[in-house]
Amino acid sequence: MPASVVYPKSHEGLAAAASAGRRSGPPQFSSANQLILFFYLLGYNNVSFMGWFWVFYTTLYCYLSAGFKYDNVHDLSWQGLTIIQSAALLEVVNSWCGFVRAPKLTTTMQVASRFMLVWGICYLFPEVKTHWAFVSMVLAWSLAECVRYAYYGTNLIGSVPAGLTWARYNAFLILYPLGVASELILIYQALPYAKEWNIAYYYFMIATALFYIPGFPILFTHMLSQRRKYLEGSYLVAEKKKYK
User: Where does the chain cross the membrane (predicted)?
Assistant: First the structure.
């Protein structure tokens, strides 16, 4: 996850932040390290986008071609999902190593919850993958990640399409609650299997579900804060244009 736009508190800073994605021009580098980091992040975002797009495509294709039946959607999408979601561990590494300016806590929380769903729920208890919530979860995840990585990748080269910027700060209003609701449903569906398998893990899963109570507001509020700053900046840019 490359560096997101930092929003200063001043009106001028907000206006600059809002228009940052609409500027075109080659990035500037002051050292070889910056150049290496640029190509690393550019490659990471491009590969991540392609991976998540493949997951989105295979999931949607299976769902539609099966006549809106969700039982066997995981047959085609599961392998790609495990690979690209496991690679998201680099999100945490990038954040904690300072390669990007992403919040360490929120990034770690989100990646940890995804790992729990993929490996701690769907992998251990494959029966839940035939539930409709698996399809809605994967579609919500993959579509949100396609928007995010496309935005970050184009932002790195200094040219973000206006439509992509809009999607970055608005699509999560639907996709994030849909993803969280689907995750909780899958955890609930897995509880009987976990209870038979290991009683301690059964209670761990309950504790994980309860963690969503404080965790969801933290992550969602963070994204709402980013959206508010973007909208404030967009408004200021429009106002400045009116008086030019």
Answer: 35-57, 77-99, 172-194, 200-220
